[in-house]
């Protein structure tokens, strides 16, 4: 037969372990969530930077071909476009 002091000690240790495990898991989960948010923000910044680079490349006229072929663009020049087509043919 186990003495009551041993039973109280055993169940006290069990309760303390459960509470410590609960507390420790919460701290680990909070750190993980913070890291996940930081990674998401960094990824979002990276995507924005890539989109800005792509937009700049799209907006810059190419050095080889600075003829604008979009007739809606205010910088469109039909004579340059026809000259380019003649040169290509």
TrEMBL record:
Location(s), subcellular: Mitochondrion inner membrane
Primary subcellular site in the record, as a coarse category: mitochondrion
A single BP term in Gene Ontology: proton motive force-driven ATP synthesis
Pfam families linked to this entry: ATP-synt_E
Leader peptide range in chain numbering: none
Cross-referenced InterPro entries: ATP_synth_F0_esu_mt
CC annotations in GO: mitochondrial inner membrane; proton-transporting ATP synthase complex
An annotated Gene Ontology molecular function: proton transmembrane transporter activity
This protein's UniProt keywords: Acetylation, ATP synthesis, CF(0), Hydrogen ion transport, Ion transport, Membrane, Mitochondrion, Mitochondrion inner membrane, Transport
PANTHER family referenced in this protein's UniProt entry, alphabetically: ATP SYNTHASE E CHAIN, MITOCHONDRIAL, ATP SYNTHASE SUBUNIT E, MITOCHONDRIAL
General function of this protein: Subunit e, of the mitochondrial membrane ATP synthase complex (F(1)F(0) ATP synthase or Complex V) that produces ATP from ADP in the presence of a proton gradient across the membrane which is generated by electron transport complexes of the respiratory chain. ATP synthase complex consist of a soluble F(1) head domain - the catalytic core - and a membrane F(1) domain - the membrane proton channel. These two domains are linked by a central stalk rotating inside the F(1) region and a stationary peripheral stalk.
Subunit structure: F-type ATPases have 2 components, CF(1) - the catalytic core - and CF(0) - the membrane proton channel. CF(1) and CF(0) have multiple subunits. Component of the ATP synthase complex composed at least of ATP5F1A/subunit alpha, ATP5F1B/subunit beta, ATP5MC1/subunit c (homooctomer), MT-ATP6/subunit a, MT-ATP8/subunit 8, ATP5ME/subunit e, ATP5MF/subunit f, ATP5MG/subunit g, ATP5MK/subunit k, ATP5MJ/subunit j, ATP5F1C/subunit gamma, ATP5F1D/subunit delta, ATP5F1E/subunit epsilon, ATP5PF/subunit F6, ATP5PB/subunit b, ATP5PD/subunit d, ATP5PO/subunit OSCP.
Protein family membership: Belongs to the ATPase e subunit family.
Record protein name field: ATP synthase F(0) complex subunit e, mitochondrial
Upper lineage: Eukaryota, Fungi, Dikarya, Basidiomycota, Agaricomycotina
């Amino acid at each position: 037969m186990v003495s009551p002091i041993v039973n109280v000690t055993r169940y006290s240790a069990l309760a303390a372990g459960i509470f410590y495990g609960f507390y420790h898991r919460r701290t680990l989960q909070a750190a993980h969530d913070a890291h996940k948010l930081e990674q998401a923000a960094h990824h979002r910044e990276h995507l924005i930077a890539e989109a800005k680079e792509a937009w700049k490349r799209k907006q810059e006229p190419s050095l080889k071909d600075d003829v604008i072929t979009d007739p809606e663009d205010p910088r469109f020049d039909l004579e340059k476009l026809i000259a380019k087509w003649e040169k290509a043919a």
